Each structure stands twice: as C-alpha cells, then as structure tokens.
Amino acid sequence: MDLEFSDEQNMLRDAVSKFCETEYTFDKREKIVESNLGHSPDLWKQFAELGWLGMPFSEKNGGYDAGPIELSIIFEEFGKHLIVEPYLSNIVMSGSLLEATDTDVSRELINNIISGNKQVSVAFSEPNNGYKFHEISCSVVDNKINGTKSIVLNAEFADKFIVYLKNENNNGLYLVDADTPGLSINSFSTIDGSNCGDLHFEDVSTENTVVLLSGDDATQGIDKMLDLSILCICAEAIGGMFTSYTKTVQYTKEREQFGQPISNFQVLQHRMVEMFMETEIAKSLLMKAMMQLDANDKESSKTISALKAQVGKASRIVGQEAVQLHGGMGVSNEMSIGHYLKKFTAIDSMFGNRIFHLKRFTSL
Amino acid sequence: MDINFTESENNFRNEVKDFLKNDYPKHVQEKQNKGIQLDKQDLIDWHKSLHKRGWAGYNWPKEYGGTGWSHTEIYIFQEELGLANCPTILPFGVNMVGPVIYTFGNDEQKKRFLPDILEFNTWWCQGYSEPGSGSDLASLKTKAVKTGDKYIVNGSKTWTTLAQNADWIFCLVRTETTNKKQEGISFLLIDMKTPGIEVKPIITIDGDHEVNSVFFTDVEVPVENLIGEEGKGWTYAKFLLAHERFGITGIPAQKYSLEKLKERLGSNIDEDLKQKMADYEIELNALHFTELRSLAALANGQHPGAESSILKIKGTELQQRLTEIFIEAAGQYILPYEGPDGFNSNKVPSSEIGSDFSVNSVSKYLNFRKTSIYGGSNEIQKNIIAKAILGV
Q1: A291 contacts in B (CB within 8 Å)?
Q2: Do A277 and B313 touch (CB under 8 A)?
Q3: DSSP secondary structure letters along B285-342
Q4: Whole-angstrom distance, CA of residue A301 vs CA of residue A305
Q5: Which parts of chain A sit beneath pLDDT 50?
Q6: Residue A348 domain flag
Q7: CATH number, domain at A70?
Q8: Residue B244 a catalytic site member
Q9: Does residue A307 lie in a domain region?
Q10: N or C terminus of chain B with fewer C-beta within 10 Å?
C-alpha cells in the first residue's frame, strides 16, 4: 500500500494551485460569472496551452493519459477557488464518452476540444425522470429526433451535443450540432455561477448526426461517465470544504467581539474541529475512490456512491457552519464564503443526490 | 499510489487467519460468538493462546520477546482479530505498562516483569484516574511518601478496569507537591496483594461489574518498584497515552457486528433502518480509509498527519451509532433486561429478534457510552485538535 502522490502528481497540483491563486482570485471569478460568457475565453485558451484540456485523453488522441487521480487533483484545486470554467462538461463528460469511441469524427472532435476550439456538452437527463438516467423518452423515430433533454451543462456555449436518445432498437449516443434546425436551447444561470440549459428537439433530422455509441456500449458509456464525473465533483467539493474551514478559522482569529478574537470561544473551536473532521473523513473516501475507479467494477461504483453520499452530508455541514461562524458576513453575496455553500448545494444535486446514492450503495 | 497490500503482507494475513482457525480456543470462541460474557479464565486462556504462538508481544520489539512486526503487520493482525470477533487483547500489560517498563525501566525490572506480561501470568490494571481527577489527570492527589527503602501510598484510584482480577497495578502517584501540577508525579508498580489495598466494585448502567474503586491506606511499596526517575512520571504517562490510542477505532469489530446484524435481519428490514445502516456503513468505510492513511504514513517512516487525531473521536462516535442501530433493530424487545449475563434459561422473554440479540444490543448500547468518555474524553480531543491543528 502506498498513499503518496507521485512527484508528477504533486507538480500538477502545484501548477493548478498557483494558476488559480493568481488568475482566479474571487474578484476575477465574480467578473467572469457576470460576463455572461459562462467562462473566460482567455483562461480557457491558457488551460489549452498548459495542456490541461488534454489531460484525460489517450496519447493516441493527442492527450496525456491522465487517470482519476490526476483529475481529482485538478478538481480539488478548482474547488478551492470556485472555478466556473466548463472543464467538467467538456473534458470529463464529453471526453469520457468520446474516448470510448473510435471514429474519425470523434478523433477530430477530441483534437478540437484539446486545443480549446470546440465545446461539447452531454445531454443525458430529462425532465420528469429524476435520476433514472437510462429511462429516456427523447427519441429517434423515422430519422427524426423529438423530445426534451434537461440540465445540460454549459448548453449555451456548446458547439455540439452528445445526446442520449432512444431509437427503434435500443439507446444510443448521437452527436448533434448546436445549430441544427429544429433544436432550440433554453439556457439558465446556475446557483454556482455557471449555466445549464434545456434542449428541445422538434423533428430534428438525424441526417447530419453521428451515432457515437449504441446499445450496451451507450449505457455503459453513460455509467462510466457518471462515476468519473461524480469523482471529479466530489474532489471539487472537498477542495471547497478545505477552503471553507480554513477561511473560517482565519476569520474567527481576526474577528473580535467582547474584547477578544472569537476563536477563543470553545463552542466555536469545537464546531471548527467538526468541520475539519468532516473534510478529512470525506477526503479519505475520495482517495479510496480515485485509486479504485480504473477497475470499473461493482466495488468501485459502490465506493463512488459512498463518496457522493458522504460528501453530500459533509459538505452541507461544512458549508452551513462556515456561513454561521462568519455571522452576517456569511450570508453576504460579496463574500466568497456563501458561494462555497452554493457550490456544495449544486454538487449534491448533480448525478444523484445524497438520498439517491445511499440507496444505490445498498443496492450494489 | 497503490491501494493494495504487498504479497508478503497478504501471506502474513493468511498466517493470522490460520492461527484463528486452528488455535483460537474453541470454548472462548463459542461464548464470544454467542455474546456470552467471558470469565477470568476464558480471558487468560485467550491471551495464553497468543503467547503460545509467540504473538503476545505483537507490538513489541524482538529484544524484549516481541514479534518485531512492522506497523502494517500489526495493523493486519489487529484487523483479522477484529473481523473474527476475538476478545480484545487486554491493553494494560502489553500496550501500557510493558512499553513503559522496556522504555524507562531498569534491567532488573525488565527481567522481573516483562516475561510474565507476555505469558499473561500477571494481570495488570491501570491506576490513573482519581475521584477528583478525570480529564484533568495531572491534578491527581494519591500520595507516596518515601520512608527508608519504601514508599507509603495513601489515596484512591477510580474507574479501574478489571481490578477485581488484577495481580498488579501501575499507578501515577504524587511524590512531591510543586507549583506545576505535571511535576512531582511518579510511576509506581504495586502488588495488589499488599496489605492496605481495597477494591470496591462500581456497577455501570448496563449492570456490569467492569470497573472499580481502588483504595490505598498506608500501602508499603518497595522503592525498587519505581519506574525511571522520581518526579518524572508525567513523561511516562504521556508516552503511555500515545500507546493507548493505538487501535482505538475498533473498525474491524464494527464490521463484524454490522454483518451479523444484516444476517439476523435478513430481508425483513425496515427501509428507514436500511438507509441509516448505509449511512453508518459509508462513514465506517471512510474512517477505515482514514486509518489506512495514518498507517501508510507510519509505514513510510512519517508522523501520521492531522487525520490520525480524528480516529478516537470518530471511531467512538461510530461505535456508539452502531449500538443505537442495534437497539432500534431490536425494537420493543429490549425492554426485558436483567443485566449483561442475559436471562436464566428457565425464564426467557419472548422476542421477535431473539432475546440473546436484544440483551446484547442493550447492554452494549449502555456500556459503550463510556467510549466517548475514556482515553481523554472527546471534548478533550477536540481541544487538542483545535490547538494543535487549527491553531486557535
């Protein structure tokens, strides 16, 4: 057993951390969120130049073959700084599905993603079916797509969508251009400073679409994508939890009431110890999950559900306590601390919330 | 990063499994798995079986008759014992006074005491807490006055676990009153048969006699029973407390209990209880991996990081949560209760889940309230983390 990160992994963490500290201060982040672009095209370009957009792709596709451990490192650092760049939707979600295919179209698209020239989002969930992602009604009949996909991350800025559809025989993943006639997009801001949208398909012709995966390959592709995405956003939450408790400790040392720093009060000390413990316990499951995920078996999926459920609970405790211990400042939108709570709330809702994953854990 | 144990570590695990299959005394195993309380002889037999295999000093260096195992081997050994529902290895000799003697004692003391600890010929108990000194241990008042070649000891100790079985007690005593309460404390070994020692049972809320008060009235202790230097006892006490934390989470034993509960409940399980168990099991897995993080650091020659300080608090919280799950699973059938020994076989109450199960559930629930109090209460642990890690 060896739980040490390698030198390369530590260097990656340092690089992402330094970049975020200088280029993604909370003020800059707020400007990006307000820009209505959903991300910073400048920084996205820099991500590409730094090679980060190619991380999880295989070498034959021009990537760096990075695995779940490297992605966890990147997301943990992103989480500390509330990054809103569409890394999850493009690199992790679309990336994981495109890597599972082997066509010229997908290879070219991967190249364009790695260089930062194209954005691709996965449209898999639907209104009215909660987290039952494989029970889909959006369908292809007589070469026409009809129906609605919902909560599509970064929908407004995607050039293409990978859409999970039902056809006559089975389920399939279709590559659809965003400007295809008959496809309309309703886009919304999200609680964590990003954006998502509903895709409405009305007699959209499949003529210019490409089937990337179908049948069991599509189903398994989606499952694999979900497990990897859960790992990434849990790492992101844990990064955020770390920052939340350390910022809270710092604040209570500086904030004086009744003639002394409020960190002197034992009731607050013990609550901050709880925040620290929740963060470390969740981090243990994250480490277990990142090392297991490549096995891609029942056990690794079980750990992913355990992680998601634990992070759902722990991040809520840490996020709420951070707001409480910051007092009025905690609920003020101009302070960063409340934005972590929003991030945690967003993360718990995604890809199955705490209740869903408790049940999945017992069923696996 | 690699999540797996090495091949030689896995072979070692199989050795431990083989021992448990062949040499774990059958009469002890049977009682233990039925949840029947072990008596003094059972516990002696258990410890002697470990000694026979050469494993009594599982965490001792070879030069004192120990195994010389690595941190990882010690961990695997403890894990397998827990998963097999073995009785706890009593910590007082092998985990507590033994390491103090071989670290701070003289050659004479090492020769005199260590072999009997390993062979379990002497049963040790711990004389630390006093009626007025709980979490504030250094405020202890039991006095030892040096007169010629002996100390005259007066005072009392409390919460002394299994003192009724003990042959010897190791005590923190005050040999000098100083301004700083941590100074002037000495570490004495006292034969329980010495005149002037009286042991009185304290019955805990589960109805069990596990702990005691021990009174000392003009008890004469030869000076050669002093460990190390007079007045330096606090240093040795702190050393010992560090050893006490070892394996305090009881994770393997909890895994065993959880599996038994699942077996007992079968498919007839309430949906809410199932969620509660899942929630508990997930956190247990998380703590398990937290323990592995500490182990990996130790095995790598590093100090375990911040995560190790969590183990006592979270481990005991989880132990207590599991006992709550048990009584909730047993429902109303926990109500008839005549103590931890169960019922007279002629007169057993009806119980949907089995009266043995209900009795064990409730006695463990009550007994385990102690876990967040002993070994430095969880509030004290939080004070330590706040100071040492958060820096407040």
Answers
A1: 1-3
A2: yes
A3: HHHHHHHHHHHHHHHTTSPP-GGGGHHHHHHHHHHHHHHHHHHHHHGGGGS----TT-
A4: 6
A5: none
A6: yes
A7: 1.10.540.10
A8: yes
A9: yes
A10: N
CB of B111 within 8 Å of any CB in chain A?
no
Residue A1 forms part of a structural domain: no
| Dihedrals phi, psi of A289, to nearest 5 degrees | -65, -40
* Shortest alpha-carbon distance between residue A110 and chain B (Å): 28
* Residue A308 placed within a domain: yes
Domains of chain B: 7-89 (no CATH), 124-237 (2.40.110.10), 247-390 (1.20.140.10)
**Amino acid, single-letter form, for residue A356:** F
A225 lies in the same domain as A330:
yes
- ipTM confidence score: 0.93
Shared-domain flag, residues A239 and A352: yes
CATH number at residue A180: 2.40.110.10
pLDDT at B244: 57
Residue among A252, A290, A310 whose CB faces B282 most closely? A310
Task: Answer whether B275 sits within 8 Å of A358, measured CB to CB.
Answer: yes
Per-residue pLDDT reduced to its tens digit, A151-180: 999 999 999 999 999 998 899 999 999 999
> Residue B163: its pLDDT value, please?
98
List all residues 6 or more positions away from B121 whose beta carbon is below 8 Å from its beta carbon. B115
Residue A224 sits in a domain whose CATH number is 1.20.140.10
User: pLDDT tens digit string along B41-90?
Assistant: 999 999 999 999 999 999 999 999 999 999 999 999 999 999 999 999 99
Tell me the C-alpha distance between A163 and A56, whole Å: 21
| Best CA proximity match to A117, nearest among A157, A164, A173 | A157
Full domain range(s) for residue A30: 7-114
From the candidates B73, B80, B230, B244, which is the catalytic residue?
B244
Chain A residues whose C-beta is within 8 A of a chain B C-beta are 1-6, 9, 69, 249, 252-253, 263-264, 266, 269-270, 272-273, 276-277, 280-285, 287-288, 290-292, 303, 306, 309-310, 313, 355, 358-359, 361-362
> Do residues A150 and A257 both lie within one domain?
no
Cβ contacts (< 8 Å) between B314 and chain A: which residues? 277, 281
Q: In this predicted structure, what is the pLDDT of residue B245?
A: 56
* Chain B partners within 8 Å of A10 (Cβ): none
Taking CB atoms and an 8 Å cutoff, what residues of chain B touch A311? none
My answer on whether A358 and A307 are in the same domain is: yes
Instruction: Look at residues A95, A114, A133 and tell me which one is the last residue of a structural domain.
Output: A114
Helix, strand or coil, per DSSP, at residue B221: strand
Which pLDDT tens digits describe chain B residue by residue (392 residues)?
999 999 999 999 999 999 999 999 999 999 999 888 899 999 999 999 999 999 999 999 999 999 999 999 999 999 999 999 999 999 999 999 999 999 999 999 999 999 999 999 999 999 999 999 988 999 999 999 999 999 999 999 999 999 999 999 999 999 999 899 999 999 999 999 999 999 999 999 999 999 999 999 999 999 999 999 999 999 999 888 766 555 668 999 999 999 999 998 888 889 999 999 999 999 999 999 999 999 998 888 887 766 677 999 999 999 999 999 999 999 999 999 888 888 888 888 887 778 888 888 999 999 999 999 988 899 999 999 999 999 99
Contact between B292 and A292 (Cβ < 8 Å): no
Residues A272 and A337 in one domain: yes
Query: B interface mutation test: which of A7, A251, A273, A305 has the most B CBs within 10 A?
Result: A273
Q: How many distinct structural domains can be found in chain A?
A: 3
Q: Are A308 and B23 in contact (CB under 8 A)?
A: no
A68 and A35 in one domain? yes
Domain boundary residue among A149, A182, A214? Answer: A214
Do residues A59 and A24 share a domain?
yes
Q: Do A231 and A358 share a domain, yes or no? A: yes
Q: Chain A: residue nearest B302 by CA?
A: A4
Q: Closest CB to A269: pick one of B278, B289, B386.
A: B386
CB-nearest partner of B282 from A3, A253, A361:
A361
Whole-number Å distance between alpha carbons of B374 and B360: 21
